[in-house]
Amino acid sequence: MTDTNTLNESQKWNYFAHNYDSKIFSLTSFLQRKQQVLDRIVKGNILNLGTGPTTYLNKDLVEDGNIVIATDFCKNMLDEASKKFSHFDLEYKLADSRSLPFQDNSFDSVISVNSILPPERSHVFEMFNEVYRVLKPKGKFVAFLCSYDSVKRANQNLNAGYELDDLQQRMIDTACWQCFHTPSTIEENMLESGFSKYDFEKVYLDSKDEISEFKKIYGVDTSSSLIYEYLLVAEK
C-alpha cells in the first residue's frame, strides 16, 4: 500500500466526518453493543482502530481506567473526534491499520468496530497481522466485523444495485470498495496472522433502537432482513 493510495482512500472519507451519525450506522452508539466490547477486553493499554469521529467507546474506555490510543487514517475523522471528547489518557493518532506505527507487544487489547473494511482482500490479512503483532502475549483482540451475506441481503432489499464482487466478498459501499467478512475469511485470517485461540458469533441487529436507526439511515428494515455482524474475540 503506497502513501498515495492511502491518501486517496482517506480523502474519500472526509465527507463522512461531519454529521457522521446521520450517514453511517455507529454500532457503539448502542449501549448493548458497546458493553459487549467492554466486557471482553483486557484492561490496560488499549488500541482502538478506525475510531472515526465518534466518542462513544473511547469515553467509556478511559473512564474505566484504561490508557487509549484511537487511530484513523482520515485526519478529518480524528479532528472531529477530538472536538467532541478529549482526555489525558486518550491520544488520537493518524495511522493506517495495514501498517501500524507501534512496536511489537505494545497493547493489552486491540478493538475494531466495523473498521476492517479495506478495498482489497489481501489488505484484510495485513490488518489482522498488524493486530497480532502489536498485541502483548495473552492480549485480546475484540472486533465487530460486517457480514458479507448481510450486506448483500440489505443491497437486494434496497434494490440499490451496488456493485458486488463475490470473489473478494466486497461491495462498493459508502465511499469506495469495501471487503466484508464470512466465517471462512475470518478463519483464514485468524490462522494466517497467528491467532490460535479465538471464537466468533453472529450478532443480529434486532433490538428496537438498532432496527429504527438502521432503517432511518439505510432504509432497510432489519427486523425482516435478519441483518447481522460477527463478534470476534481472539487471544494472542
Return residue spans where pLDDT drops below 50 for at least 5 consecutive residues. Answer: none
Quickly count the helices.
9
The overall average pLDDT, rounded, is: 89
* Assembly form of the protein: single chain
Q: What structural class do you assign from the helix and strand content?
A: alpha/beta
**Tertiary shape:** globular
Helix content, binned percent: 25-40%
Describe the protein's architecture and organization.
The chain is 37% helix and 26% strand. The protein is an alpha/beta fold. The strands form 2 sheets. Strands 3-2-1-4-5-10-9 form a 7-stranded mixed sheet. A hairpin with a 4-residue loop joins strand 6 and strand 7.
List the helices and strands and how they pair.
Layout lengths: L2 H10 L18 H8 L6 E5 L6 H8 L3 E6 L2 H10 L5 E5 L12 E7 L7 H14 E12 L1 H11 L5 E2 L4 E4 L2 E4 L3 H11 L3 E8 L3 H11 L3 H4 L2 E8 L1
Parallel strand pairs: 1-2, 1-4, 2-3, 4-5
Antiparallel strand pairs: 5-10, 6-7, 7-8, 9-10
Summarize the entry for a quick read.
This protein has 236 residues and is α/β, with parallel strands linked by helices. The protein contains nine helices and ten strands.
Please give a handful of descriptors for the protein shown.
236 residues, three-stranded antiparallel β-sheet, 9 helices, alpha/beta, seven-stranded mixed β-sheet, 37% helix
